[in-house]
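May I ask for whichever protein you like with its backbone structure tokens?
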Amino acid sequence: MFKNYFFLGLTSAILATIVGVVFTFGYIDLANFFDGKPVWYFALLFFAKSILFTLSASIIYFVLNCIAKIKFADFIVSFLFALVCLVSVFVILKSEDPKFVTDNANDNSFAYKAYAFAMFDFIAISWYALKSLFIRPE
């Protein structure tokens, strides 16, 4: 039973990473904030964060749904995902703008924050998109 929850977390992290890498390739031409680092470096960091969030959500969902038998497990996990996404938006907004030394430094700062906003949402969207494939309602 836990196997389905584990594979949900793993495959949703892989899907989020693939979408994040495609998104990163789109941003490489638009903004110059990658500082010459290769895309695989960002893909590896994003995959690590995706694994952390999706496996945590899968374990919490398994504990609430199967072990504790809480009827509102879907609501609780959905609320936690929404809360993490909302908090991440405020953390990004309150963070100090990165220093760019290009002609359009202000535009790059805005593009960097827009890039970071979308990356957190890819994790939640991929988890919800694949949840129905692995977890059957009882």
The mean pLDDT is 83. Helices lie at 2-30, 39-67, 73-94, 105-134. DSSP finds four helices and no strands in the chain. Residues 16 and 123 are 5 Å apart (CA to CA).
